[in-house]
Structures
1.
Amino acid sequence: VGIVGVTGAGKSAFINAILDREVASVSEGNATGCITDFVWVADPRGEGVAVTLRNRADMEAEIREFRGGTTMGRQKAMLRELAFTDIGGADGLLSTGRHAMRLRQIEGLEACRELDTRPRRPLEELWRFTNAQLSPLAYGVERVTVHVSAKVLERVTLVDTPGIHDPDQRRARLAINEAATLAGWFYLVRAIDAPTDTVRDAWGRFDGAANNRRAALILTMLDLSQSLGFSQLESQRRSEYAREGWDRPIAACSAAPRLRSRDDMWRAFVVAAVGLSERQDKRLSLIHISEPTRPY
């Protein structure tokens, strides 16, 4: 089951709440840099992270194209010179920022050359391979499989994806390409955001690439769950999405890292999953959860 949506909707925080553990890397902005599968392992001693790198020939081609025969020292010196030179106001600053981002990506690809081939790494290292903001290594990673001893994963594999409108087009394509492999998907969107053209385009692109319509919309409230006007906002958004053509289940939850918020997300997960299985296909049984600590 895919956890998809635009950047910053709370996808990774949602997965952490369902697993009841801080496993997925969470930060502001474009955090998730690759497809990340969360799969069940019975023995906690078997927990860990398996990393699949991008095609090595493709990575080497990118490095050669960027370096263009120059040394790393010359590239860094060029970047420093650009950063302290007036090269045309906002356009110049934008150009410098793009160059800095690209240099960081290339350094990440070069670092991937030195990675050892361990079949499984500790869970604590997950952020190094998935968090595109904190670790340049993530640019060289195609997919990560996270083995976790969490009861919910016994019946369902959760798939975290990059934001559909991630500014890095390669990462955005990863999310869209994953659509056809999923048995169902949860589309997360911030409740504070009205169903704009950007949001409609994102779910439309994913819907078009998916091989079925088993989907549920989950409104994430971030810190708005404590707001007096929350219920009204939720009701308003449900009506707006229905008018825009969303005819599948809708659930809502907070995405802030608090205990109450985790219960909110768990409730939304169950509501959405039941909606997927009962409304779309009587034969499909996505989850069967027996958790003594959860009343849902």
2.
Amino acid sequence: LTEERVKAMNNFIEINKSELKFNAVFVAIVVAKGENLVDARLKSPMVKTNIVMDYANEHPDKFNRLVTDRNDGQGAINEVMSASVTPDFHDDVMKFVDFSTLSERMAKSNSISMDFVGKFHGWTRAAFISIERDENGNQSKVMYVTKIIDEDKKKEQEMFANSYSDELTKLFNRRAYENDINQTEINSANKIYVSVDVNELKVTNDNLGHEAGDELLVGVAQCMKRCFGPYGKVYRVGGDEFVVILYATDVQLENIKKDFERTVAEWKGKLIDGLTVACGYVPLREFPELDIHE
């Protein structure tokens, strides 16, 4: 962002700040207003994570036109956001920045926000914040801001994943299983319930130690993930108990069974030479009168 453009934007803000009203001019003012916030921290590394800055640097000519064109405020913010948002979120973001519905959406709130994935810096939060209302309670001044929240989102997603993940095997845990099983339709044509128990886990723990027992559990999890993973979700629901909810045709199921048996037979660990399991397969369509727990 050149010094000349910063100066031009600040001049534009100064000239138009008295017109920061909820009208057609407002959005162009908002774009410039957002940039003014950037100008106040130009020496900060955070300047690199501002959507309007990114757009200004990528499209300097277009941006110069936007901050000097007072006749197409909605078009200005649409152009900046459209160029900054990934396709999956484009339509929702365009609805969010639509000023024709903003008064109604903010009638009972001083702020509204939405999260989306941006092209430049990942997860981003956009917000409209009420600055002033008229005597009838309608918005008369509103500020539009964006904030990069990619790191926060990643931490949030990691915490969510950990809450549904078994720490030892990295499979889905019992909480994930119970959440998913309550949403399972019993009469699905290709849905198959698979139960797997690890043989001799207690004997292994008693004779070779818990490190060997953990290796046994991880080995079973690896075999299951390899063979069942492409067709469904694999859960560790207890100490030596595993469950899979598969989506497979009869032909696919026969191939999966053979592959799993072969994979288990060939597995060898560092502390133990092999493993065995007890495995049962139940096509849910064969028991339409029962619920999933039965």
3.
Amino acid sequence: AKAVQMFREVAEQGYVSAQYNLGLCYENGYGVEMDKEQAMEWYRLAAEQGDEKALLKMGSCLDLGDVVEPDHEQSIEYYLKAAELGNAYAQAALGVCYENGRGVKVDYLQAEKWYRKAAEQGNEVGQSGLGVLYKYGHGVEQDYDKAVEWFRKAVAQDYAHAQYYLGVCYKNGHGVEQDEKKAIELYLKSAEQSYPQALCTLGVCYAKGDGVEQDFDKTVSYLLKAVGQGSGEAMNYLAAFYEYGVGVKKDIKKALESYQMAVDMGYGPAAEKVKELEGAYSGGGFFSKIKRLFSR
């Protein structure tokens, strides 16, 4: 409490480091009742004076919308100022935004620029992001070897995103010798950190018996965990299980509800299934549908 009072007195005199530290106190409840709006106000004051860490905080608050309504365009402005000051996390965040079109138009060249700047500072988000660009040939010439190289750098920092994508490389033999066992190991490490794509992929692996012994209990468990992390794709798989009675009792009502939830979670392909089931349901072609479902 004394530290907070000291920070406040100095912050009110315009000292930028005190403003930033007071923001941290309010954000985390250090010596004061947690108040994220107050935290954001102190970060804003520090950011106006060009504080690198405060600029990053403001960009993150506006990007993620955990304090106020998201404003991705304004978040870009804060990220850019911090990135130009050399902040690796802001550089990586800009890479994410340009890769995914968040607050800006998709621009893989800009994504590569900012990911690389972050990656060269040892930032795991930048390293893994650069790996993805090399894997798919977005903004750079496709190069699986370079993709693996960057993924490995991020995996060395225990970054879940990179663990998952390096697993995909081992699964498909991209830039490495194909090794399904190694792929599963990496998926599991990523899933332990609740990375949704890893959780969903493991669910599918257990459903197909792909690299693991088939186990529908584990399938459902992993898919539910993925749904809990916001994966609409995982919800879509669960809906399909209810529709076709795979590992669970066939239940068209639950299937329809689950497909609609997948749509609400942003998984567009489920919309066609919602239309289909809302119309007239036809149960024909069971095995061919299941085969298509898991032929990905």
4.
Amino acid sequence: KVLTVDANGDVILVPDATGTGGGGNTTICSTAANNFIMKKDVLTNTICTSQIFEDPATFNVGNGTIIPTAKLHVVGTGILTTSYALKIENNASVNLMKIHDSGQIEAGDANSNLFFGNGSGLSITSGTGNICFGDGAGGGLTSNKYNVFMGRLAGATVTNTGDNNVGVGDLALWKNTTGEYNTAVGSSALAKKSIGKGNTAVGLATIGGNQPGISTGDWNSALGNSALGKLTTGTDNTALGNDAMFPMITGSYNVAVGSSALGRPTLGNTAGNNNTAIGTTAGFNNIGNGNVFLG
């Protein structure tokens, strides 16, 4: 016999017209329940109720529940970390995601990479220990290691050797290619930094985020919106305060503490070295080298 559907939409058994059924008669078990997906036991040639329930009113499907409240509602077996409500593997038996009955969630590939977002980590090959959240975040990662990118297009163009970077914020470390050991927190922080290393930027558009070209300097630190905002090749600068050292482009070994210290957005030092300015707008119109400004 074979299964078919009658005029009422019910599944019924009918004789096999070809006579090639071969397995003998198939029976429906006496405990079959309404609205459960049916399954066949090939050993007993019996069709009976599975554990999968479909709500006839909402068409929600439940596994472990007969009151599914979502399109797929899964109820685990307890509250233990050793049992799972959901487990997903690839065809190489690598665990991609496990949701424990205790609520713990494990996710990642065989190399401990974790990507969430459209296009996030799309190019990864042999990279290890990367964590990316956001559309396009870490989209260019290939063999990179130990990067963390969170935000739309954060670290999106990192390729080949850019390791140990942290970018949090929309476009943070966006143009980074081979730069390493950089930390960027804030929208567009270090957005134009390509090969620089050891930079720390906290705030909107810090360290090169406000200039049109690519920034390559090393070991710069900036805290404050647009601090070192136009920097390109400068090295070992420290800027603390909104717009601190904002106009600096190629200068090195400068220290600016205070809002607009060593330069306002439209005026200030662009290439000076070894300057120190402490105080709001201190040294804002300086264009030289080796100066100290207090207050």
